[in-house]
Design brief:
The chain folds into 2 domains: about 150 residues, no CATH class; about 170 residues, no CATH class. By secondary structure, the protein is α+β, with helices and mostly antiparallel strands. A hairpin with a 5-residue loop joins β9 and β10. It is elongated and about 70 Å long. Bound molecules: zinc ion.
Length: about 350
């Protein structure tokens, strides 16, 4: 039997956060999401369109009047090459990369509006010298060439983009930082807790219905010696007493239920530091120390700020439309045409 010491928290929420690739960025430069679904391993096999339009139908026998998206040329850095891309094609590729096409139509539409908002905000506030966005999911938004996608997938992505043509999210007249992520684990996180800058529309909200989502909870096991060595490398002043019960001190939490700070070996570590150090899915974790290993149990996946994609799917299944989904995850915003 394991001589285990319960070292952390059965806290009120369990939730948490961190932006894997965004430490030190100002709120004006937030990454859209995470590589999460874009990594592909998590993407469920897309289901056939069912009652959704086939590609021919979606496009119509006669092409529709060019809309906003088709008339807007976005400078995109695609694998190091600067490409001028119609916003419509860019967004179709983003949907293909960033959200499983098996998700409900209203969730796909919410993603299309969030991704359009993100891209246009980057167009106004450049991160790259020559381009508005790149196609790296960890930096801007992931993108897959629609021409290389299965026709059924492309039709679903394209339909969501077309159905929301030109729509963006604004708060106080300005385009918002429409960040998103795969799964919150039940509650999203404050932007301030992750990036340090407070944005009124990026505050923690409950995100029910995600229980069945991939990575709602996960376990990360680290051999105890490795765990200790990693912390010693982070802070040379740590002291670990013989009894495991003395390794963990006080813990504080963020508004979204993430670990704000955890005392280990008598030294404070932020949840973000620990997530990065041990490759945790989120900062919403509990820690249990056993004789031979440290066991982190995480909730959710990603920085957990903004729209939860799994939560958006859950809301859509409950009958919410894309605007209701967006106004839930981005509080106090308007969904309106760009022009
Ligand atoms: Zn980028």
């Amino acid at each position: 039997m394991k001589n285990s010491v319960l070292a952390a928290l059965f806290l009120a929420g369990f939730w948490a956060a961190l932006a894997l690739l965004s430490l030190g960025r100002s709120p004006a430069e937030l990454p859209a999401g995470t590589a999460d679904f874009a990594e592909g391993a998590e993407s469920p096999a897309p289901s056939p369109p069912g009652d959704l339009p086939a590609e021919e139908t979606a496009r119509g026998t006669t092409p529709p009047e060019p809309g906003f998206d088709e008339g807007f040329l976005l400078p995109v850095l695609a694998e190091g090459e600067l490409v001028s891309m119609e916003l419509h094609d860019y967004l179709t590729g983003v949907l293909l990369a960033e959200m499983p096409l098996s998700f409900p139509e209203e969730a796909l539409k919410a993603q299309a509006v969030a991704s359009r908002t993100y891209a246009l905000r980057r167009y106004e506030h450049r991160r790259h010298e020559t381009a508005a966005v790149c196609t790296a999911s960890g930096c801007c938004q992931g993108w897959r060439d629609p021409a290389a996608a299965a026709p059924a997938d492309r039709a679903l992505a394209e339909a969501a983009v077309r159905a929301t043509d030109g729509l963006v999210i604004r708060c106080g007249g300005a385009l918002i930082e429409a960040t998103f992520f795969a799964c919150s684990g039940g509650r999203t996180e404050d932007a301030a807790a992750v990036w340090g800058g407070d944005l009124p529309y990026l505050r923690a909200v409950d995100s029910p219905g995600e229980e069945g989502a991939a990575h709602f909870t996960d376990e990360t096991r680290i051999p105890l010696g490795e765990f200790r060595a990693a912390l010693e490398a982070l802070d040379g002043a740590v002291v670990f007493p013989e009894a495991l019960g003395g390794w963990v001190g006080s813990v504080s939490y963020t508004p979204g239920g993430g670990v704000a700070e955890m005392e280990l070996g008598g030294r404070p570590f932020t949840g973000k530091q620990l997530r990065k150090c041990f490759g945790l899915r989120s900062t919403a974790f509990t820690l249990e120390l056993c004789v031979d290993e440290a066991v982190f149990t995480t909730r959710g996946w990603g920085h957990r700020v903004g729209m939860s994609q799994s939560g958006a799917a859950a809301m859509a299944r409950e009958g919410a439309d894309y605007a209701e989904i967006l106004k839930w995850y981005y509080q106090g915003v308007r969904v309106e045409p760009f022009e």
